[in-house]
Amino acid sequence: MSSTTPPGPRPLLPLSPLLGMRSNPLSYMEQLHRRFGDLVSYHTVGRQVILLFHPEMAQDMLVTQARHHRQGRVMQRSRSVLGNGLLTSEGSFHLRQRRLIQPAFHRQRIFGYGQAMCDYAERHQQRWHDGDVLDVHQEMMRLTLAIVGKTLFDTDVDGDSQEIGAALNTFMHLFKFAVLPFSEFLEKLPIPPVLRMKAAREKLDRIIYRFIEERRRSGEDRGDLLSMLLAAEDAEGNGQHMENDQIRDECVTLILAGHETTANALTWTLYLLAKNPEIAARTKTELDRVLSNRAPTPENYPNLKYTEMVFSEALRLYPPAWGIARTVEEPYESFGARFPRNALVLTSQWIIHHDERWWRDPMRFDPERWTPQARAARPKFSYFPFGAGPRQCIGESFAWMEGVLLLASIARNWQFSVVPQTKVGLQPLITLRPKYGMKLRLTAR
């Protein structure tokens, strides 16, 4: 079958699509999907961009054709902060690093981290008071950063959390800079975004290298992720351990992935429960039955079925990773279209998770979509909040346990409600953040 050029916008100004994606990528993709369908193509600044908005196409991109791709532009530019960690490394090196790190996310290890998740969640809520109006997003960012500090470094990062949080916040705003044409050249100039990025990296490096050096000196295995990284041995390569620089890159990647995405997911979940008190009440009923008025433990996790359904539905409506991009390395043909070398290919959880072909009344918050029967009736790739294929999020099982246990800990103690200060907007950076934070009122249960 001969390949054709997929339909798409043919703008008079070549920068128009780029500016559309940069200013409001979610609504721009929605417009393209409505106008042109599931397979959309356009050229901008001499580069072809191909958008895929169907579950089968997402599967083809992320799994079937994975070997033909390397990371997309934003992740390539992210090396300036993340270095050569799991999110940014490529090819055989990425595969080797993934195999080295995988044991840190085995089921038994994650179960061990679960107790720290519960302990920190209970401790964090001691600062809250009945009737408070809190920025729930800031609270979740602080909580998940404390948990990642404990599980990654077996330490309280309270003293460093402000610096780490500020550095990661700078990094999240890299998206708008990274999509600019010629950003690879711009990042060599002493312009404000570049200087901010360098300062953020220096802050992170100072903190993380300190943790690494302290652990190397002590030689302790504390059962945390850092111990696993220091002990990991490359059985397939030269049999050596990871150098400090590589451990640093993996640590920064794991801090970002284990902190930012879960904090955003929990923020949107608590907002949805505030808007839907009947679903919040049903969640509380399950928590009362399973927990018997006690704090959750990792042993409770398998029995928190409805709580997990609530979290699953929040990840559908507000996926922390709203799009996945790849760059074509080897040309190929698929779905009647040619994917040429250096084309940028993008699929979007935001679009597919809100497509009424797979989700009836897609903007409605409905945890009942997550019964076994409802799941079985949908295409597999109608839902992929953690990606798929060889680059699927290595910490997915960690994130599920953390999301459900933290939600259980919080929702058993507090009811949330929307107040006049609650201003809701979407901020699609590298992750999907709430644009104005998330101010909600707490009522003690």
Average residue pLDDT: 91
The helix content is 40-55%
Proportion of residues in extended strands: 5-15%
Instruction: Please give the CATH architecture.
Output: Orthogonal Bundle
Say which CATH homologous superfamily is assigned: Cytochrome P450
Low-confidence stretches: none
How many separate domains make up the residues? Answer: 1
CATH topology: the name is Cytochrome p450
Estimate the global geometry from the Cα principal axes. Answer: globular
- What Rg do the Cα atoms give? 22 Å
Strand arrangement across the biggest beta sheet = 1-2-8-5-3
Class by helix and strand content? Answer: alpha+beta
Structure description:
Helices cover about 50% and strands about 10% of the residues. It is α+β, with helices and mostly antiparallel strands and about 450 residues long. It has a single domain, classed as Orthogonal Bundle (Cytochrome p450), CATH 1.10.630.10. The strands form four sheets. The chain has a five-stranded mixed β-sheet with strand order 1-2-8-5-3. The protein is globular, with a radius of gyration of 22 Å.
Secondary-structure blueprint of this entry?
Blueprint: H1 16-23, H2 25-36, E1 39-44, E2 47-52, H3 55-64, E3 69-71, H4 73-77, H5 79-82, H6 91-101, H7 107-124, E4 133-135, H8 136-153, H9 158-172, H10 174-178, H11 183-186, H12 192-218, H13 225-231, H14 244-275, H15 277-291, H16 305-317, E5 324-328, E6 332-334, E7 337-339, E8 344-347, H17 349-352, H18 372-376, H19 396-411, E9 414-418, E10 426-428, E11 432-434, E12 439-444
Parallel strand pairs: 2-8
Antiparallel strand pairs: 1-2, 3-5, 4-12, 5-8, 6-7, 9-12, 10-11
